[in-house]
């Protein structure tokens, strides 16, 4: 997912043994009572660290996620699609911004977080390291990737940390059009020429498995799920979300007349869910650890935008300082007069 | 009702589209997240205006040329845009300076059309003028920050001025039926002069002399490249509906 | 040049502002989030682009985040619990005879 829970920090699991035992108990009781934790409240260091990691990972994913789709803004095949895509990618930038702001309430600066991304210390969702080869990919991303993201994000609206939960509420409101516009693109392709339909199928073939990987490792292999759910940060497990996603998406693909590239996919009446094939976790870890098709290109894009923007940010700061100094001088002159 | 001649309509629409396309190239690459979002808003505004104007043109021409046919299936020679709209973005200084030049041109133009004798166009112009004012403010704020910012930003905005100035005389000389060109030019000059002064920059060199034909050729080339990219997918599938 | 001087001349990150938006004529401004901007006017301009893309507002306030003073969360109980006992402040505390109707 956007918050894939992929990197591990051994310090997190030792926190329960901290000196602040009583405070921690009180804190966990608040969480159990569904109380919201706010920035000034006492919180265990492990909670703060988990949040910083998860929120910043989420923020980075939104911002890096602007790139694969952004590359098609200039080639969108109709003016309507161009407008919609531009607004959609812009929204993702906004999501990154809201989330950086939420992380900043925990005492880290945006600059520090961005630095961690650019230096390779921080992760972002593996999905954005795949290439957008065709226009159909823009539809598939909206339909599947945003669809998967929404599934993960809706429960986060109830997460225990107030600023994160509020950012997620705003984000979820805005997300609702993303998935629909993606589905609408794919639908137009499926109802279009044979070439268009083939484009949609080929795209689904490439994105299906990486989308399932977005939900992160199986619960049995996920180091964070336990801690994060005790803290009320993660409400539903990776596997539950993944299953839910498969279950709703199969019917949508059927409606579109597309086939999901998984021969093992079939309805299991006993479980009341679809069974599906094995995920290639080697691929997942390769992409997470930097060897995906576009990891390098994505980071280069982000770093160059940041570095080339430095003189712009500095100019604004310098002008603001001069402007403020002049205002003070004017006020002083008035007082003297 | 007295409709604006279709040639003028296309000139404005094409200018909006081409400029909006250039602005959209920044999406995801802006100097700061907040600013990326702000600039994209200006791209959305002008692309939206282009669409409305194409739709108006199309409904009047009645020749089956839809907004997308107009945008995607005409070549560079058929585009009527003001040349400066197609010039490459360059750095952020050049991008905001072009926005200043164009929005300062559009504000009085939209205002004139908003009270003009073409009611359908006037309805579009009323809204477009508001957006153009926001855009003009955004562009002038940045021009001022750059002129009055750091040594580097000042060097960059001065470079942008010398790069873009040659296209300005043709822009200001552009006639749009039903509007007073000289009046629009005066407003442009007054506004830009004020911004330059606040930015502590030298007066804007409108009467640049230079090889006019070279600049025109340059702009045509930039437009061709822009359209080549923009139209590539649509032209690959001429029968497709998206 | 002293160290602190060098620092004050060095370009810094844009400061953080809290953004408050009046969603409709007649309503209070409500906190919606925060953003970085080079100064307050810049923050207003950016807040319009960041927080009102869907017509969420008709008026914007921005406040430098560092200008906000918050109550101490540790004093939450002593600050706010004593108010719970003052039930006579609420209209539902009083019985009004049915014959009187709405009051
Ligand atoms: Fe998003
Ligand atoms: Fe999205």
Describe the protein:
The complex is a heterotrimer of chains A (337), B (242) and C (103). By secondary structure, chain A is mainly α. A two-stranded antiparallel ribbon of chain A has the order 1-2. In chain A, a hairpin with a 4-residue loop joins strand 1 and strand 2. In chain A, helix 4 packs antiparallel against helix 7, helix 6 packs antiparallel against helix 7 and helix 7 runs antiparallel to helix 8. Chain A is globular and about 80 Å long. The termini of chain A are far apart. With 242 residues, chain B is mainly alpha-helical. Chain B has one domain: Ferritin, core subunit, four-helix bundle (Ferritin, Up-down Bundle). In chain B, helix 4 packs across helix 6 and helix 4 runs antiparallel to helix 8. Chain C is an alpha+beta fold and 103 residues long. Helices cover 23% and strands 20% of the residues of chain C. Chain C is built from three helices and three strands, in the order H-E-E-H-E-H. A three-stranded antiparallel sheet of chain C has the order 2-1-3, covered by helices on one side. Chain C starts with a helix and ends in a 23-residue tail after the last helix. Chains A and B meet through helix 3, helix 4, helix 7, helix 12 and helix 13 of A and helix 1, helix 2, helix 3, helix 5 and helix 6 of B. The complex binds fe (ii) ion (2 copies).
Average residue pLDDT of chain A: 92
Beta-sheet strand percentage of chain B?
Answer: under 5%
| CATH class value of chain B | Mainly Alpha
Note the gap between the termini of chain B.
35 Å
- Shape type of chain A: globular
Q: Pairing-aware structural class of the strands and helices of chain B?
A: mainly alpha
Poorly predicted spans of chain B: none
> Which shape of chain B, going by the Cα principal axes?
globular
The CATH topology of chain B: Ferritin
| Major sheet description of chain A | 2 strands, antiparallel
Number of domains of chain B: 1
Instruction: Specify the CATH homologous superfamily of chain B.
Output: Ferritin, core subunit, four-helix bundle
Average per-residue pLDDT of chain B, rounded, comes to 95
With helices defined by DSSP (H or I, 4 residues minimum), what is the helix count of chain A?
Answer: 13
Identify the CATH architecture of chain B: Up-down Bundle
């Amino acid at each position: 997912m956007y918050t894939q829970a992929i990197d591990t920090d051994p310090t997190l699991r030792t926190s329960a043994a901290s000196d602040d035992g009583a405070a921690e108990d009180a804190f966990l009781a608040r969480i159990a009572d569904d109380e919201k934790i706010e920035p000034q409240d006492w919180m265990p260091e492990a909670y703060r660290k988990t949040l910083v990691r998860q929120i910043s990972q989420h923020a980075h994913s939104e911002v890096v996620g602007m790139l694969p789709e952004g590359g098609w803004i200039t080639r969108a095949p109709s003016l309507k699609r161009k407008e919609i895509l531009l607004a959609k990618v812009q929204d993702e930038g906004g999501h990154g911004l809201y989330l950086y702001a939420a992380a900043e309430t925990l005492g880290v600066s945006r600059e520090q977080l961005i630095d961690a991304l650019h230096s390779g210390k921080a992760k972002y969702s593996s999905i954005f390291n795949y290439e957008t080869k065709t226009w159909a990919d823009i539809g598939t991303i909206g339909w599947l990737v945003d669809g998967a993201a929404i599934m993960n994000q809706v429960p986060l609206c109830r997460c225990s940390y107030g600023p994160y939960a509020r950012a997620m509420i705003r984000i979820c409101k805005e997300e609702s059009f993303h998935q629909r516009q993606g589905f609408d693109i794919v639908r137009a392709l499926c109802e279009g020429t044979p070439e268009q339909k083939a484009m949609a199928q080929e795209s689904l073939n490439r994105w299906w498995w990486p989308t399932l990987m977005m939900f992160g490792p199986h619960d049995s292999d996920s180091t964070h799920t336990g801690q994060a759910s005790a803290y009320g940060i993660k409400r539903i497990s990776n596997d539950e979300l993944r299953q839910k996603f498969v279950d709703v998406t199969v019917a949508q693909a059927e409606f579109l007349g597309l086939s999901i590239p998984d021969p093992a996919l079939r309805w299991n009446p006993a479980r009341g869910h679809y069974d599906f094939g094995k995920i290639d976790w080697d691929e997942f870890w390769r992409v997470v650890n930097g060897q995906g098709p576009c990891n390098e290109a994505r980071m280069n894009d982000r770093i160059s935008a940041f570095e080339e923007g430095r003189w712009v940010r500095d100019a604004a700061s310098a002008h603001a300082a001069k402007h403020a100094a002049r205002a003070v001088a004017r006020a002083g002159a008035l007082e003297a007069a | 009702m007295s409709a604006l001649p279709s040639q003028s309509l296309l000139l404005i629409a094409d200018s909006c589209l081409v400029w909006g396309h250039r602005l959209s190239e920044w999406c995801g690459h802006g100097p700061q997240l907040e600013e990326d979002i702000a600039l994209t808003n200006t791209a959305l505004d002008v692309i939206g205006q282009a669409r409305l104007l194409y739709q108006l043109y199309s409904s009047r021409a009645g020749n089956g040329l839809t907004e997308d046919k107009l945008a995607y299936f005409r070549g560079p020679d058929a585009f009527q845009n003001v040349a400066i709209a197609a010039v490459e973005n360059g750095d952020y200084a050049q991008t905001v300076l072009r926005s200043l030049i164009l929005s300062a041109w559009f504000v009085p133009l939209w205002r004139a059309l908003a009270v003009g004798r073409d009611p359908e166009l006037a309805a579009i112009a009323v809204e477009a003028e508001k957006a153009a004012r926001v855009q003009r403010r955004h562009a002038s704020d940045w021009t001022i920050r750059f002129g009055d910012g750091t040594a580097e930003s000042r060097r960059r905005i001065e470079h942008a001025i010398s790069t873009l100035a040659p296209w300005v005389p043709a822009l200001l000389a552009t006639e749009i039926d039903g509007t007073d060109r000289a009046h629009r030019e005066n407003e442009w000059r007054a506004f830009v002069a004020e911004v330059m002064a606040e930015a502590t920059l030298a007066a804007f060199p409108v009467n640049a002399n230079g090889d006019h034909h070279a600049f025109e050729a340059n702009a045509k080339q930039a437009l061709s490249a822009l359209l080549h990219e923009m139209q590539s997918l649509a032209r690959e599938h001429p029968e497709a509906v998206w | 040049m002293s160290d602190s001087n060098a620092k004050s001349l060095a370009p810094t990150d844009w400061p953080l502002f809290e953004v408050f938006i009046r969603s409709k004529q007649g309503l209070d401004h409500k906190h919606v989030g925060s953003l970085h901007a080079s100064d307050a006017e810049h923050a207003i301009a950016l807040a319009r682009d960041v927080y009102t893309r869907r017509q969420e507002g008709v008026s914007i306030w921005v406040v430098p985040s560092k200008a906000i003073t918050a109550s101490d969360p540790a004093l939450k109980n002593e600050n706010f619990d004593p108010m719970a006992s003052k039930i006579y402040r609420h209209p539902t505390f009083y019985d009004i005879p049915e014959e009187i109707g709405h009051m």
